[in-house]
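Two proteins, back to back. First:
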Amino acid sequence: MKRLGSALLSTVLLSSVISGVGSAAAANNIKVVINGVTQSYAQQPVLNHNATLVPFRAIFESLGAQVSYDEANHKITAAKGPDTLEFRINSTTAYKNGQSIALATPAKAINGSTYVPLRFVGESLGAKVNWDAATSTVKIETAQTASSGQTTPAAQNSLNPLETAVTSTYATYETNTEPLAYKDAVALAVSNSNSIKSQEASLKAQNNSLEDAADDIDFIPPRNGSNDAANSAFNNYSQQQINYSIAQKKLETEKDGAGLQVKNKYNAIIDSIEKKRIADLNVADAEWKLRIAQTKRDNQMASDYDVTQAQNTLTQQKAAQEVAAKALDDAYRSLNAIIGYKADQKYEVPDTPKFEVFEDDVEAHVGRVQADSPTVWMAERGIEQAELDINYFNFVGSTDNAYENKEINVELKKISAADAKKQLEDAVRQTYNQIKELETQYGQLQASMTSAQNALDMTKKRFELGMSTEYEVFQAELQLESLKQQMTTLVTNLDNAKMAYEKPWLAGAGAQG
């Protein structure tokens, strides 16, 4: 009987450690101080699942917000200046200005009154929120507004009973520049490219050379004619025509290359934002685990070693968060360097690629690519130039083998052109296979996301029935969000691969820088 009693006691104690007990928290007489003034509420603040909850109308009005309650839908709406917040009772998803935000603790109906999570409310409305554990006091300063307007898990005290609010749709990072569309980034890169400016200057110089060569022609000589001066002049003019066309093609290729380079760097920012977001969530998860470990230890259900392990995990996750933040900064700097922005400029990148099944006739595309490729085109112009040297060969003063060497040069140019075609064909087939492999991975990720969504829905239902904890809901959300981040990486890789498939001769240029 004693054993059964001990087991039952341990089970009850574990449940209270993880899920929290609201009634016990109410006895702590939590105080709320706003700008140095102690607030007095008809319903007292409560501590529920490691989160401070306060009566919704009282806190919003204290912070200068207008508030309304839709009883039919159990929805709370508060507005202050440009910010609008929406909550639903028992929902772990809130909305700030239309952006969904995952809450560790939802709004709740307690003893006939509606309560909302204090930290999220305060910080979302631009206030600074601190917890004084010694006096069980929440101190709010509305005069000090967080620079980003976002609540970051890493900034929260991992040991206070205020809730952990985590952004679920985007990473917490500041922007200081207007949103940048992909097409606008390409236009900036083209106008800022010294390589393109140099190619434009070369094209102008080549046009001048072509005009000079035209002035030297008195008449068009027959092929292999005997007038050496006329042959030389016409050969030079024909060569300059080809050189001018080559310069035009090089300029076109430079501009196309800028488009692919921007595509890779633009998508790298999108991917880095998602990775930073998941790093933030992982820090929040590690902080939560540390709180649980410490509470268990205080109730003799875990050892100091367990707490140390949780602290080490938190340290590792914070280090990973710093790495993700640096990678995001580097991604911005990399694109900024080619579009002429300052290194520290940050902006939204709204053109997120969407998944679409890719279908194409590879054999037909190989032919199109070989016909459109500047590499092949210039190789074929090289053949024409070499043949001109034969057609208008000047035998006067030439060695015995000079003509044969010209013929050999034609053959070498043909081999070079054939090799360029073969390399393009191989690149097209390889990229197509890469796209199909990524599509297969997408299908696998979709299946995993469906399972994760189902698990999250089930966990939320269990939570509503009191059969699971809020932390278990958060873990299920973290699993789903991690899969979404992997999906973003995969779709951006697909987007890059599809552009490389369309113009494979740009792949080398797009990968540079």
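And the second protein:
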Amino acid sequence: MNIQAGAYHYNKMPTSVFDEDWQVGDEPALRWFCRACGETDELTDHQASGKPQYDPLREVTTRKDYMQTINTGECSSTTHGVYFTPNLFYKWRNQKQLFGFVAHWIEIDTKNHNALTPQASQRVLDEVAQVLWLADIPMATNIVTTGSGGVHLYWLYDCAQLTQSAKHREILITRWREISRQLTSRFDAQRKQLGYKDWFVDFAASHNPSGNMRLPGSLHHKTWRSVDYYRGGKTFSPQALVDELGLKWKYPKNAPASLEKGNSVNSKPKSQSTQRRASEIKPKLNTAQQVPKKLPGIAQGYDSIGQKCWLTQIITQWVQYLSKEQPNLKGQRDLTAFHLFNCANRVMDPSAAWQFIQEINQKYIGLSAQELKSYLSTAATTTYYYGFTRLKKILSDELKLPINFTQTRKKKTLSAGQKAAKQKMAARHTNKAKAQTTLDKLCKEVTQYIKNNNLSLYQIKESPKLKTNLQKRSQLSKATFYRYIDKAIQQATKQIKVKLNDLIALSKTTCLNRYSHSYNALAKPYFLFGLVGTSSWFLSRFNGLYFKPPD
């Protein structure tokens, strides 16, 4: 049977062609197989294939050998589905271990995940092919039918895009998701335009670079129909896929062959002099000081009280969502367990966090005890202190959780007396601040007015006409102006030089008051004491005096 998608023909191929197209068994890193079994469809019997250039610390297999193993003995009667990872991993299957990007995919499921008849499945396949042809996306390289009515579309790379560092991996993941979002959004928009409602795009599975997909050649347990593989499109370089989608950025360069852990791909051997300089720069540890060992489950960092309160709110909303909605976590069980346990480990004791995740897993996630222990092996020894932005991106974009990330705090309830006292104190502070602002403004106007009109402080003080002009200039009411004008003149003596005649005139209505920061306020105060001439001794004794109007 063939699939017709516009001018493209997709021909049904044997599983050996799938092995050849996807280099199954010859991958430069690990590709994982697993099977779903039991009533909960939990994933188990994880085995990897590939020929990595590094030591994977595990035995590898091939697709053919794996299928032979699970189709014999007790496994044959309990297997509910067989899966593989399109992308490649350094060791274990999680996002932190992603090592090679091989393809993009769109997972299409039937409404309510129902198993369809062969006729209904064919109708869905024809509709998917029509949407693929009309949508503003490149034609897929491969099509896989799941045997129950579901369809998987693949855009296969011409060669695996290998990571060369943790930062490079994060960049590739970001770019990979951008391409996947473009493919799924445009495809789903065309589906809605044509009005097809019997199937939908699984965005979570399509945007998960470490996810599992059904393995061609296996059987679907609901219908016992085979998972078939079709080939008809071309392979892509990542940049060619970017260009065909009309995106305006360059895909990050691929890493060459060297896959030794901890080594940069293009790193050159350091010379002896370079190594010697590096060892000289590196600080030496005091042998008397013992480096503390990491304890399993103990957080190796710090969270403030506010951060812990915020994380507690996130965990509470997450558990409420799992309890109320009972979402289908297929393909996201490992990420859900990992991030929920990591958040709990930041706010709880290690034992309490482990007990918490075991209860949540038993109720909602559905991993076996062995799988849960394997998935959380790194989180049990290392606590990942994701910040607000990173954690929000993980939970909202990757896991699609409807969580409110706004941090809310419970306000303390105050008695009526406490509220009145607090309001009274706030009013005092407000009045004091307003008064100081008004005084500073008026002092600035007085200083500027004197400089512009070559006047003296005494003239301002004694002339009603000048005060009227100054009041209009300051744009203050008369009551406010006359309440602060004397204090403003007094404060202005600290900022401008005061002439002796003005000082004598002001002294007739002022008394002495000490101020430690002003010498200009008192030019020569000898006239107050009947002194004749300037006395340096007197000035040194009375430095910092200024005149203040008597009360």
